[in-house]
């Protein structure tokens, strides 16, 4: 929650800062977002596998959060797009280092029968931070007469508070007691079952359909919303996300994953269509709420499915591999959305997102497991 407050404060202002202050193009914004997020997911592959190998998660998690905290002042000090890119790169490396071990750690300490609720709760707290960050950004912009650089300094305190809380209060179980069916390594991917790879495939299609949240902010600017109120877009999305993530996660412990993900697909199609047709800030806000609902329906569910379908001793590797593929998809999706926006127009980016979401829905309902799995019934 604390790190999301810090990161989303920056994230909600960064597109306007790059385009309005530093003079970057929308294509450049899309490229930076795509590369930065892809770096996150590639790093997760190695950090997750390393946490399996050494049977320790917390040191990697602390290192990742510390790197992210150290980058926050750099955004406020940035004088060029290259500086922003460098800060974004290091920030996302930190995110990549921490997230696969953190998600695996959550599975390590949570009983299987409530794992959906656990991942839903984590997503809800992430979303509370993602709500507080843009809200704090807007309040600082109002108080500081739209001085984006000064407002960005507000991200420093919650960023470092994250490291303090994690270091002092998070306890790690003894992972050496976990039975191993082989030495954890990237070669262990051969032991990941078909239901795991289905989750990866659907996650890729979902990522292609929703690219970077920065395009929600850019769409709000495109329809005429004043810069000082742009953080409200992220606030509206994250209120819906935070309110529904835990109930959706708890529901995943008792309902079919196929049905729940199908609902997420439908919501994502609706959000993209509304954004494509939007002619006012009201429409963008409405679409942002639907965007938040589809995130709540799917993000915790994907985490639960990875944890459920991966062998216990390969859990970190499984999260790392999953997020590597998500990163590669995002590396395609965000620059593609930026190119469509610049060459054809903003609606084209969101229409493409709706088409990828529809493809995800087709893949989801065309596949039939040969044996009962988490996809066809609760784990």
Short description:
The chain has helices at 2-21, 26-54, 58-77, 81-108, 115-143, 148-152, 156-169, 194-210, 214-222, 231-252, 257-277, 281-309, 315-343, 346-366. With 379 residues, the protein is mostly helical. The chain has one domain: Up-down Bundle (Growth Hormone, Chain: A).
Task: Note down, in words, how this protein is organized.
With 379 residues, the protein is mainly alpha-helical. It has a single domain, classed as Up-down Bundle (Growth Hormone, Chain: A). Helices cover 77% and strands 0% of the residues.
Query: CATH homologous superfamily?
Result: MFS general substrate transporter like domains
Overall spatial form: globular
Q: How many individual helices? A: 14
The major β-sheet equals: none
Strand percentage: under 5%
Query: How are helices and strands ordered from N to C?
Result: HHHHHHHHHHHHHH
User: What's the total count of β strands?
Assistant: 0
Mean pLDDT score, rounded? 81
Question: What share of residues is helical?
Answer: over 70%
* Total domain count: 1
The CATH topology annotation reads as: Growth Hormone, Chain: A
- Looking at the overall shape, the CATH architecture is Up-down Bundle
Helix/strand structural class: mainly alpha
Highest-level CATH class = Mainly Alpha
Radius of gyration, whole Å:
20 Å
* N- and C-termini, Cα separation: 28 Å
Low-confidence stretches: 178-182
